[in-house]
Design goal:
The complex is a heterodimer. By secondary structure, chain A is mostly helical. Chain A is built from six helices and no strands. By secondary structure, chain B is of the alpha+beta class. The chains are: A mainly alpha, B alpha+beta.
């Protein structure tokens, strides 16, 4: 396997890894009581009330859907961009919490039963962002996009 | 090009539909063996012991959602105390809250020895940010107990015995048996409700005559 193919394969694996993380993260939140994630959102002291409640209901499903599309590599470019924006949003939340010195008990990343310190989550998200960028750039060969295009392009 | 985009949209629709169905099926609560109706010792009960609506509450002193639920349940008892009998059960999530098991044991001792379980548990919930990750939690708990006029020696004796620990463990085993996997989890006349919102729904059902 030449360098280009190896790069495509590794990038696709990275894309799948981030997809699985998003699916897991969303699934855990959906399966837990709504107020667990709601309380985690309130902990960042950015949104409150109805907006926090709506976010608690919607964000886990967005994570799952983006995760599924990333795993399969469908609408890969578009989905990668949305996922990058989602992670950048998380990074902004975490960064402002660190700057303001908020005592965030639970980052809300993987439900109430597992929480990393926000500094750790911030660093991990940078890793996932780099994975997403590589997946965006180089993983076309191992994607459903390519399969569909090669089958139906005639 | 349009044809390919159309095929992708259809494929995406079915993928997301499948994901939705799988998640909805897997997160749906099983219908069997979820009927916890076993009451707790009297010092861990509040409301009317003869009430028709019995609520069993599995909770963790360090969990923020449990603290919010505690406020809700306290108000429920304050305003409609005759209608409900609330039973507190311990379910400390020790994997993420390192000292909530210890908090549970302390609350047991305060409850058993002084019948001040609810006062102490309110303190633990309201001040959880002070102690939840502190190695010297026992100093803080002593200070809270002192505020309630509690004698340190009797508590120390209770903490030194295995009785309180056994009671907390018994609740945790009961929670495992009834498939409690997050806190707060309630059983309203035996039916499981995860979180305050489901609790409200179950209470509404009971108020409308039960199922």
């Amino acid at each position: 396997m030449d360098f280009k193919n190896r790069r495509e394969l590794v990038s696709a694996i990275m894309r799948v890894v981030v997809g699985c993380i998003l699916i897991y993260s969303g699934f855990i939140k959906i399966s837990e009581p709504l107020e667990n994630f709601y309380n985690a959102i309130l902990g960042y002291k950015i949104v409150s009330g109805d907006l926090a409640l709506i976010s608690a209901q919607v964000v886990p499903w967005i994570e799952v859907y983006l995760g599924v599309l990333l795993v399969f590599g469908l609408f890969n470019k578009l989905v990668s961009i949305f996922s990058i924006l989602l992670f950048l949003g998380f990074e902004l939340l975490l960064a402002q919490a660190m700057i303001r010195g908020l005592e965030v008990e639970n980052c809300g990343c993987f439900g109430a039963t597992h929480s990393n310190p926000i500094g750790v989550e911030f660093t991990l998200n940078l890793v996932w962002l780099s994975f997403l960028f590589l997946g965006y750039k180089f993983s076309y060969r191992f994607s459903l996009d390519r399969l569909i295009e090669s089958k139906f392009s005639k | 090009m349009k044809k390919i985009t159309g095929i992708k949209i259809i494929a995406g629709f079915f993928l997301l539909l499948a994901a939705t169905v799988i998640i909805l099926i897997t997160t749906e609560e099983p219908k069997e063996v979820l009927y916890d109706t076993e009451k707790t010792p009297s010092y861990r009960q509040k409301g009317n012991s003869e009430a028709k609506i019995v609520i069993i509450e599995y909770t963790d002193f360090a969990c923020p959602a449990c603290a919010a639920a505690n406020t809700y349940v306290s108000n429920l008892i304050k305003y409609f105390g005759d209608d409900f009998n609330v039973n507190f059960k311990h379910y400390p999530l020790t994997s993420i809250h390192p000292y909530s098991f210890n908090a549970a044991v302390w609350s047991e001792c305060v409850g058993k020895e002084y019948n001040k379980f609810w006062e102490f548990s309110d303190m633990l919930f309201n001040r959880r940010l002070e102690w939840w990750d502190k190695k010297d939690y026992s100093k803080l708990f002593k200070a809270y107990a002192a505020e309630l006029g509690i004698d340190d020696k009797r508590i120390a004796k209770c903490l030194g015995s295995s009785d309180a620990i056994d009671l907390v463990k018994k609740d945790m085993e009961s929670g495992d048996k009834f498939k409690v996997d997050s806190t707060p989890t309630f059983f309203v006349n035996g039916r499981k409700a995860v979180g305050v919102m489901e609790l409200i729904e179950e209470i509404k059902k009971e108020k409308q005559g039960g199922l």
